[in-house]
Structures are given as structure tokens and as C-alpha cells.
């Protein structure tokens, strides 16, 4: 089995990506990042998802991005919006450089593992305006990765897989449901409590709930 690194957040999207990578026959090495986000329950969810799907390995890297702030997900002085999904502009829940940093960390681990494949659950359809979820960002990062690594220079081209990038949330859930993903293990809420209960009002909760409704799949999310 070829090794692959999977960025695993503990949310719905990354759990689906892990299942898709497994279906393709990859030995999955899962990476989560504790970047100073509002709650650690998503890291516990990532560990559960990795175990449930038989990941070869699961690791958490610690990087305290709340020292910079600038996002409602890392700065407790900022409020997570709950009035509805943003339709224009970049919302305050955008974490500056987060996906760039996470992909760079995954790229480094992939090179050490001798893995040519890296999977990430970014989505450019049902998303809240994040610039680092766009196809052009993924293409640009892949180009950079193959210029920046020994593996790339020596001809072992690194491939960044973003299989959800053009899918709606309903299509993602339908795919995961077919692959047997237990979405009850996942957490998507930006401000889940210590018991893992979702607020039901933030952008991520709204998109998740609407996705289950559109897919005709029961929503296992515990809401408070």
C-alpha cells in the first residue's frame, strides 16, 4: 500500500477525504494541528475518526497561532458570527495562513515517509469565502511543493489531492455515507462545547445541517 498523508481536522469533510483515500488503497497517515483553536474537541474527534477508519498512524502537531490572533477561531476577544452564512467578503473566521501552514507541515511529513500523495478536505463550493480553499491555491501549493522538496527535485512528484473541492456539502455527505463514514464521530462547529455539542448557528453548523437535509441523510450532530 502506498503511503499518503491526510490532513484530518475532526470535521465532516476531512473524515470523508480519509475514507476516499482508503478506498483508493492508500496507507493513511493522519495529521491534525493544534493551532490554538477555540476548542480541542475537534482534535479528539480527529483521533476517533482515524481509529474508526483504520488509519496507519495519527499525529497531532502543536502550533500556537492564537499568539497572532486575527481570527474568531483563535482570538477569544472576537465573536464567531451566528447570523447566517456570509455571502460576500472574507469572514472573521478565516485563520490567516492556516491552510498554507498545515499543507507545509503535511508536505514535510510526506517527504520523510516517502509519500507522494497528500490529501486535504478543502471545498470551494459550500464554503464561507476562504481564499485558501480555492483550486488555484491548491495548484499553486503543489507547484511550490515540487520546487521546495528534495523529493520533488529528484523526480518523486508530490500530488496534492483535494477531492471535495468542486462538491456540494450534500454530495460530500452522500459520498461518505456510501463509504461508511460515521459522521457521529465528527465535529464541525466553530464553537463546540466541552461535550462536543454544536451551537447550530455558526456558518459551519448551518452548512453541515443543510448538507444532511439536502442529502436525505439523518444528521447525527448533537446540538446544544
Walk me through this protein's architecture.
The chain has 224 residues and is an alpha/beta fold. It has one domain (3-215): 3-Layer(aba) Sandwich (Rossmann fold), CATH 3.40.50. The protein has 7 helices and 5 strands.
Strand content: 5-15%
Query: Could you say how many structural domains there are in total?
Result: 1
Per DSSP, the total helix count is 7
Q: Which fold name is given in CATH as the topology?
A: Rossmann fold
Uncertain runs with pLDDT below 50, 5 residues or more?
none
CATH architecture: 3-Layer(aba) Sandwich
Number of strands: 5
At the fourth level of CATH, the homologous superfamily is: HUPs
* Straight-line N-to-C gap: 42 Å
What about the largest sheet? 5 strands, parallel
Report the C-alpha radius of gyration, rounded. Answer: 17 Å
Query: What overall geometry do the principal axes of the alpha carbons give?
Result: globular
The CATH class: Alpha Beta
Strand order of the largest sheet: 3-2-1-4-5
- Mean pLDDT, to the nearest integer, reads 93
Report the structural category. Answer: alpha/beta
Q: What percentage of residues falls in helices of 4 or more residues?
A: 25-40%
**Succession of helices and strands:** EHEHEHEHHEHH
Amino acid at each position: 500500500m502506498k503511503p499518503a498523508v491526510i490532513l484530518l481536522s475532526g470535521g465532516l469533510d476531512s473524515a470523508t477525504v480519509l475514507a476516499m483515500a482508503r478506498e483508493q488503497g492508500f496507507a493513511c497517515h493522519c495529521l491534525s494541528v493544534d493551532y490554538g483553536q477555540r476548542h480541542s474537541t475537534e482534535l479528539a474527534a480527529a483521533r476517533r475518526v482515524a481509529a474508526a477508519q483504520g488509519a496507519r498512524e495519527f499525529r497531532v502537531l502543536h502550533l500556537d497561532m492564537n499568539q497572532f490572533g486575527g481570527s474568531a477561531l483563535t482570538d477569544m476577544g472576537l465573536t464567531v458570527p451566528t447570523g447566517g452564512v456570509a455571502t460576500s467578503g472574507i469572514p472573521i473566521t478565516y485563520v490567516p495562513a492556516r491552510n498554507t501552514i498545515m499543507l507545509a507541515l503535511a508536505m514535510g511529513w510526506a517527504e520523510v515517509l516517502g509519500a507522494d500523495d497528500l490529501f486535504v478536505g478543502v471545498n470551494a463550493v459550500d464554503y464561507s469565502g476562504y481564499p485558501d480553499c480555492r483550486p488555484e491555491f491548491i495548484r499553486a501549493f503543489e507547484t511550490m511543493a515540487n520546487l521546495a522538496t528534495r523529493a520533488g527535485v529528484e523526480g518523486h512528484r508530490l500530488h496534492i489531492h483535494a477531492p471535495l473541492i468542486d462538491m456540494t456539502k450534500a454530495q460530500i455527505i452522500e459520498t461518505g455515507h456510501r463509504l461508511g463514514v460515521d459522521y457521529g464521530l465528527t465535529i464541525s462547529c466553530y464553537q463546540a462545547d466541552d461535550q462536543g455539542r454544536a451551537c447550530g448557528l455558526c456558518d459551519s453548523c448551518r452548512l453541515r445541517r443543510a448538507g444532511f437535509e439536502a442529502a436525505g441523510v439523518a444528521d447525527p450532530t448533537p446540538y446544544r
